[in-house]
Amino acid sequence: MKRSNNTAILVFANSAKTEMQIKPILKGDILFDQLTQETLQKVKRTGLPYFHISDQEQEGKTFGERFTKAIQTVFENGFEHIITIGNDTPQLSTAHLLQASNALETGKTVLGPSMDGGFYLMGIHKANFDQETFKRLPWQRFSLFNRISTLLDKTDNLLYQLPVLNDIDTIEDVKRLASFKKSISSTVLQLLRALIRQGKILPIIVASALVKILLQQPYNKGSPLLLHS
What we know:
This protein has about 230 residues and is an alpha/beta fold.
């Protein structure tokens, strides 16, 4: 099926180095590199034009400023509809992207809610996008999905909702996603499980090192306790 040239995908994703500064996942850089590669592969399979805007190209001081500026940039390139995604939702598929594209072409707006109260995908029309309004939304907060749903409901377009998926922000998300064997690639699954094993081993290594340090210290039983006055 021939895809519309009026719709573009925006992959708004930080580099692995920047992700590691934001998300407390020790040694997760290899994982985020792989997630970005797989996300771009899924995007390319849609046949839609796409933009990958990483932290090196983003403009603005806050997340909201950077994200809305990136959306505006895509619209300024002549597109009427845009699908925005990140790189931290390994369950996201090409089919989800095509569903969003089809919904946009029939006049709907689209949201893919994530488990943490945000969204992993948003599909909007140029006519519904106001940069200042979007900039003021509670980005990276639990209330984001409800707020943006309310905003999109006020437009003349019906809201099409994709399935709820898990994204990766913490080691707890890594543990949760490691059980989804069918919807995640084998490579990402291996990386998730390696991070979990590492999380179990590290405390043992730290404790062992601490014991060695203590054993190397000269023994000092300290002053006797005064039991009677």
